[in-house]
Amino acid sequence: MIADRVDILLSADAIQQRIDQLAAEIRTDYGDNPFLMVVVLKGSFIFAADLARRLPESTQIDFVQVSSYADQKSSSGVVQIRKDLDITVEGKHVLIVEDIVDTGLTLGHLRELFATRKPASLRVVALLNKPDAQAKPAEIEYVGFQIPNEFVVGYGLDYAERYRNLPFVAVLRSE
Ligand code: PRP
Question: Considering the entire predicted model, what is its pTM?
Fold first, then answer.
């Protein structure tokens, strides 16, 4: 059997402290304007849950599922919409919530898609960003952590649907 080794990259405490800061920044920037969190399933579910509980009670939350990875460790370059939003974004301030921006392909696709739906504004918060994996820098208004170009799991991120429930972010190495 091939065993996996996880090396902690970001501790649970470090993540929670950074989310405090991100939420404070977002609250300041939006002020009295209510906004819609568009949570990108599945990986963002834990980050979104922690972030949402630090945001105003006027915040709306809906979900999309876009998948590009299947059970592989690297992007296939194919972006599929598996589940669309239930509510309309027209005229709303939209905040896309991502767990990780890797190549930036998924986010680029989502930005294009939502821009056509006439939101009042469109911003992105991503817990993790991998600049070294991007041909051109992804457009992200709020970044939790810049991380190296390694395969990470935990805090929502999976490998073959495992490890999402780890409270920290770790580099996955096969031994
Ligand atoms: C991950 C992540 C992003 C995307 C980023 O989702 O949540 O949506 O990949 O990769 P990219 O920048 O190279 O496009 P994934 O397709 O693994 O689905 P999951 O969140 O359901 O695990």
Answer: 0.93
Q: Which of 68, 111, 157, 161 to mutate to test the pocket of ligand 1 (most atoms within 8 A of CB)?
A: 68
> HEC profile for the chain?
CCCEEEEEEECHHHHHHHHHHHHHHHHHHHCCCCEEEEEEECCCHHHHHHHHCCCCCCCEEEEEEEECCCCCCCCCCCCEEEECCCCCCCCCEEEEEEEEECCCHHHHHHHHHHHCCCCCEEEEEEEEECHHHCCCCCCCCEEEEECCCCCEEECCECECCECCCCCCEEEEEEC
- Exposed e or buried b per residue across 38-48, where buried means at least 16 C-beta atoms within 10 angstroms of its C-beta: bbbbbbbbbbb
101 lines ligand 1 (CB under 6 A): yes
Residue nearest to atom 22 of ligand 1 (CA): 43
Average pLDDT for residues 164-174, to the nearest whole number? 94
* 102 tagged catalytic: yes
Could you read off the pLDDT of 126-153 as tens digits, one per residue? 999 999 999 999 999 999 999 999 999 9
Buried b vs exposed e over 146-168: b needs ≥16 C-beta within 10 Å? ebeeeebbbbbbbbeeebbebeb
